[in-house]
Amino acid sequence: MQLIEDIKIILPSVFRIDPATVYPVKGGWSARAYFIESRSGDRFLMKVYEKARKSTAKLTANVEYYMPIVDWLYSNTRLYNKIVDPIKTMKGKYKYENANYAFLLFRYIDGDNITEKTFLGEQVIQLADILSILHSYGDNLPLETEYIREAFDIEFCSSLQKIMQEKDFLKVELHVLISRYSNILGNAIDKLKRLSAELKKSQLEYVLCHTDVHEGNILETKDGIALIDWENLKLAPAEADFFSLVEKPWFEQFLDRYKKTHAGYEINSLSMQFYQLRRKLEDIWEFVEQLQFDTINGDDRRLISDYLRQELESILE
């Protein structure tokens, strides 16, 4: 309740919005979410990141670099109403912070999350069209992109390896899991390092990529689908968007549509391997961080432990 009261104070003082209604809605792993309706009838979604969580600093560090690009795409391309519409503070910033939280505000998108069961042929076409438009921008973008340019960074691997070497300091369930999977985890890290080194030397075409395309980030609206959660926007090879789609039963249909705009595109196998493996290891590291450093109890802790176990086992596949 206190956070809702804080939001009611922040909205008029920081965003010049007079709230009539504020209540929590389902968020994601990274942030809490709140629905807001102003007294004038405008509707918004506020994402609230807890600074106490280890992952928050990484997720919010580049807001002022990537959010202007999202804003420009919404206002100047055919992605209007197909992506999020960020709202600036009165000081022209995309993020507001206090001692405990970071706040991002967006115009509300009225829709429901897509599920694998409901992802139909027309929606596959719409997703292909959204990514086709997004990927038509790269170095030709009239905005600064240096800070979101893919560097095939895997610095988190050093932290993960350190944890693996200091198992005696881990909490009990983490010690058991890390000990059981240490060999396959070590081999996966070594493989990712080799892929990273090779790709850093490659001459690849970079395009704007969302990099987190999955059903949980796709909304079904009355006007078609919309792609949300742009925290990981990058200038990167197209595989940064395709690695999570390539095993879907509809990927061939998706790619056929995509190639109507990007006729010469061919999947780069090294890049695809890199993004698939990096995401698995990044997820593993985030679950390890949460279990070891964040204050998580009860069912949430058991759930995260289960997710970690599943990700560790998936490396064997």
Write a structural description.
- By secondary structure, the protein is an alpha+beta fold.
- Helices cover 44% and strands 15% of the residues.
- It has ten helices and eleven strands.
- The chain has helices at 2-14, 56-60, 63-76, 121-134, 156-165, 172-200, 239-242, 251-258, 269-293, 298-314; strands spanning 19-25, 32-38, 43-50, 86-87, 96-97, 101-107, 112-113, 207-209, 218-221, 224-227, 234-236.
- The longest helix is centred in the middle third of the chain and has 29 residues, at 172-200.
- The termini are far apart.
- The mean pLDDT is 92.
The helix tally amounts to 10
Q: Round the mean pLDDT to the nearest integer and report it.
A: 92
Question: Which bin fits the share of residues in helices?
Answer: 40-55%
The sequence of SSEs as H and E is HEEEHHEEEEHHHEEEEHHHH
Class by helix and strand content? Answer: alpha+beta
Number of separate strands? 11
What are the SSEs and their pairings?
Elements: H1 2-14, E1 19-25, E2 32-38, E3 43-50, H2 56-60, H3 63-76, E4 86-87, E5 96-97, E6 101-107, E7 112-113, H4 121-134, H5 156-165, H6 172-200, E8 207-209, E9 218-221, E10 224-227, E11 234-236, H7 239-242, H8 251-258, H9 269-293, H10 298-314
Antiparallel strand pairs: 1-2, 2-3, 3-6, 4-6, 5-6, 7-9, 8-11, 9-10
Helix pairs in contact: 4-8, 5-9, 6-9, 6-10, 9-10
In a few lines, what is going on in this structure?
With 317 residues, the protein is of the alpha+beta class. It is 44% helix and 15% strand.
